[in-house]
Amino acid sequence: MRNSSVSATLVLLLFTLAISSYAQNPGGAPGGVPGGIPDPNAPVSPEKAKAIRRLMELNGGVKAAQQILDQVTPRLRRTPRPVPDSVWAEIEKEFAADLSSGKFVERMIPLYSRYFTEADINELIKFYESPIGQKMARVLPQLAVEAMQVGGQWGLDVMKRIQQRLKEKGYSNTTE
To answer: Can you tell me the mean pLDDT for 77-87?
Structure first.
């Protein structure tokens, strides 16, 4: 259950981070084109890549990724098999280096490029430079953490209710 909880937590947090930017997309669809299918292999121009880096700086993407690590690592440390603290320190150092070196951002550039045109990125930059955009960037990491907690509890509640309904209807529950 722990691994699935951690996976669900990561998915929910990534979804929350993505939705904050996606909600700003004026077309409401990848590339701002309703029903448009982005080309995952399309090259990213240097100008667009630079704009995406700026956007991620403004929207707190790296800070949020660090908070993900800060939230997930303690949960992973509670695995049934003991792992020495020195191993966890190595792991944390490696992922912190991904963030500080820009490796994480570079991996995100094609993703942002796939879903947003350069014009979209520039509009998002304007948004995140605005007072409300700055507030969103400031509160989104904590909002995402709290949303994960609420979402996780909701998921557990849903599973219990489903199990109860199945039991009431006379079906055996294979997940108990």
So the answer is: 82
